[in-house]
Amino acid sequence: MENKITVSIGDRFVAGLVDYSIIYGFFFFFISQYGEPNSEGGYSITGLPVLVPIIFWGFFTIGLEKLFGATLGNLLLKIKPISLEENNKITFTQSLKRHLLDPIDMFLFGFIGIIVMKNTEKKQRLGDLWAKTIVIKS
């Protein structure tokens, strides 16, 4: 593999913060605008509208990685994920695997992801390990 520089945990944290601030902002906006008031004082969505935030999440993470090679947060920080196996742009399946494990990696404000990255040679999160990817400077 050509000499690629893996990025710092701080850069990855900031990129994730940018991405998930936008995603959660959309979730809260969508639910407040299209949700039904519930007995607990919040809002709920049911039926097909439940798919809208899920589709937005998929497009904003997996879709952007497929279209541009990185999410918005990654682009702003000038970092990108690549495949360890082919040393190039990640596949749809690799992106899906990376992001399906985001909830675990981000548990306790990213504690799990940080611990895993600190203990892997290439600073990989659980999603990166499963997908066989690394994040490098672009």
UniProtKB/TrEMBL annotation:
Give the record's keywords alphabetically: Cell membrane, Membrane, Transmembrane, Transmembrane helix
Extract the InterPro entries matched here.
Pra-immunoreactive, RDD
| Entry's localization field | Cell membrane
Q: What range(s) does the RDD domain occupy?
A: 7-132
Question: Where, by residue number, does the polypeptide cross the bilayer?
Answer: 12-34
Identify one Gene Ontology CC term for this UniProt entry: plasma membrane
**Pfam families in the record:** RDD
How does the protein associate with the membrane? Multi-pass membrane protein
Question: What is this protein's record name?
Answer: Putative RDD family membrane protein YckC
